[in-house]
Amino acid sequence: MRTLKGILLGAGMTTILLSACASNNGAKMTVSGLNPAKFDSIIGGKKTELITIKNQSGMEVCLTNYGGRVVSLSVPDKNGKPTDVVLGYDNISQYADTARTPSDYGSSVGRYANRIKNATINVEGKTYKLRANDMMNCLHGGGNTGWLNKVYDVKSKNDSSVVFAITAKDGENGFPGTVKATATYTVKSNNTLDIVFQATTDKETVINMTNHSYFNLNGDPSKEGYNQVMYINADKFTPSDRFYIPTGEIKDVAGTPMDFRKATAIANKYDPSYDQIKNATGYDHNWCLNTFKDGKGDDKTVAASLYSPKTGIFMEVFTNEPGIQVYTGNFQGTGISCKHGIKYPKHVSVCFESQKYPDSPTKFAAKTKGWEISNPYLKPGEKYYSHLAYKFSTKK
Prior knowledge:
- By secondary structure, this protein is mainly beta.
- It is 6% helix and 36% strand.
- The chain has helices spanning 22-25, 92-96, 266-269, 275-280, 360-365, and strands at 16-18, 41-43, 46-48, 50-54, 60-64, 69-76, 82-84, 107-109, 115-116, 120-123, 126-129, 138-139, 153-157, 161-168, 179-187, 192-201, 205-206, 210-212, 214-215, 229-232, 234-238, 251-252, 264-265, 284-289, 292-293, 296-297, 304-307, 313-319, 323-327, 350-355, 377-378, 384-394.
- The longest helix has 6 residues, at 275-280.
- It is globular and about 55 Å long.
């Protein structure tokens, strides 16, 4: 989904007190070329840091507790060269400057990822007005005041895993219920980044968490990424209007540029005259995954994949969720210098957001046909669980 959307419009710069910790001043650079000291800060009275997790197979993932974000993800290419495959910044200042460098790069999004129409939900017969930050809609839980710009607590960490925790108060951005949530990131021995989102609430609410990493597997994010080969395991998708809100239809991908059931270069499918692509200036849509059947998601079967013929890096995506939003960097290309000073062009990346369908609170409450599998409601005593995994390998 878009990086520089209405998500953070009107936001002022988050109050930052930079205070590089002496303990990190001598820290060595990460494999991806990050300086941990540039992530040591105090934001909103809470300490931020860079955390590195890795395995013995050449995979390194660097994260910050600011937004529970993946900052870099390095895996070997076909020649064994470590390659950072996600977009982002190389310092905490840019992540936290929601006025000049707004982004959702790599974040753990909550309380509700994607859009809710007219920023309104109905829970237990009561209407709640949410924070509108994407025109009249609520996007990613309220944008600059949502979880992607909160400092998570580091609940635990070791060489291969970190657990981020957050508590969202009742009424935050208009949402009912105090929610306690965690995002657990684990690097596995087979070069998989495994992500588990969990949450509980003290009052019925809606919840939809995801990771928002932008992938470019080519090893050069200064160039467009439409040469990447994409596969989406879905026979259907949910068309959207010009405001990116699903119409309520569930349409077949057959015969349209939305059909990625056979892996193909994105450029080969891209048709700017097709209404859905024209509206979004690229792909920014939800696909209804074939891996979700009978009310349960199969997170052992590939939901989507991405491949770079240039580096040979191959990524498979697994999830237990019913849908996946695929966004192709349509609003990148702003001229802002990002990680290592690179200015990302338009269509440089692909984001795979595992999720409940966009605007599920509206469509589910209205009993829209086909949306019954996308129940966004969480009640007290229930436990929310969402699984997402990115598995990397290479092809010669």
